[in-house]
Specification:
18 strands, 16-stranded antiparallel β-barrel, mainly beta
């Protein structure tokens, strides 16, 4: 009987990760874990635009009862339960703790187009959304808790994004500057419907090590999501990394590397899917290795 719409969703996930390197997971090269996610979305219309509140709660469990590496990476502390995202939004104004624009990747599970630490930040943003054009600017809190090797105390970062849809194609241009390290990064991502699937290409350039991109000085990646049937998708992908070492002043130099793999997704039935990926990694100065996962997920 109110003007507020409340939506409850989430998923239950079972996943087995593997990595050919010794002791990659709790002293072995594989690990099984489960996750439960519940999210609440409240929306209502106001004289200032649509008002939204969003809360997403994650709970992770591993085979030995310890919190998973992912849970620790997003600031869960000693508990396996954490607020994965929580924010409010009024019209184009958004504030809270949530995954930033760098979290978006290309199809498949091969690409590494964001920071190796975390893309979850406490931020304030303004986003303009048009029919074929979106633009936004965001101010991020950078903390020593999340970026202990890169940030001393509290600092700020800024992001800006422009997205345009051009019929069957779209392009994202994203830039960010890390005031703590006085370095920045830019990323372009192009997506187009080609034949029975979607072709995506992306590139990142980083002026020096920073919280937005710390993997290499520059990288290029591509994938093609081939819709074999209505339920089955195969996505091969590849990514090249140039200058992956960092010197004492925070500048990139030295070794290169690449990563290639394939991801397969199958919709078992309405609300339940299976996803599997395997990837080969070859970086100068370190041993070659394979990694990936197999996932079952029930979404609601």
């Amino acid at each position: 009987g109110t003007e507020t719409c409340l939506k409850i969703g989430g998923y239950v996930r079972f996943q087995v990760d593997f990595d050919s390197r010794d002791a990659a997971y709790f002293g072995d090269n594989w690990d099984a874990f489960t996750r439960g996610r519940v999210d609440f979305t409240a929306k209502s219309d106001t004289e200032l635009g649509e008002l939204t509140g969003f809360i997403a709660i994650h709970g992770d469990a591993s085979d030995n009862g310890a919190t998973t590496a992912l849970a620790s990476a997003v600031g869960s502390g000693s508990s396996a339960f954490y607020l994965e995202e929580v924010y409010l939004q009024l019209g184009g104004f958004k504030a809270g703790t949530y995954l930033n624009w760098w979290d978006k990747g290309i199809n498949g599970e091969t690409d590494r187009l964001a920071s190796s630490v975390t893309t979850r930040m406490t931020s304030i943003a303004y986003i303009y959304t048009g029919e074929a054009f979106t633009a936004g600017v965001q101010l991020d809190e950078l903390t020593a808790r999340d970026y202990s090797s890169l940030v001393d105390g509290q600092d700020l970062g800024i992001e800006g994004i422009v997205t345009a849809s051009l019929g069957a194609a779209s392009i994202d241009l994203l830039g960010a500057y890390d005031f703590a390290n006085e370095e920045g990064a830019v990323r372009a991502l192009v997506s187009a419907n080609v034949g029975p699937g979607t072709l995506q290409l992306a590139g990142v350039w980083s002026s020096g090590i920073n919280v937005y991109y710390d993997r290499a000085e520059w990288t290029i990646a591509g994938s093609y999501a081939f819709n074999a049937t209505d339920k089955f998708t195969i996505t091969p992908g590849v990514q090249y990394f140039a200058n992956t070492n960092v010197d004492a002043s925070g500048d990139f130099f030295g070794d290169d590397g690449w990563r290639a793999g394939v991801t397969a997704g199958y919709a078992i039935t309405s609300g339940m899917s299976m996803l599997a990926t395997v990837n080969y990694n070859d970086f100068d100065g370190s041993d070659e290795f394979w990694d990936g996962f197999v996932r079952l997920q029930r979404s609601f």
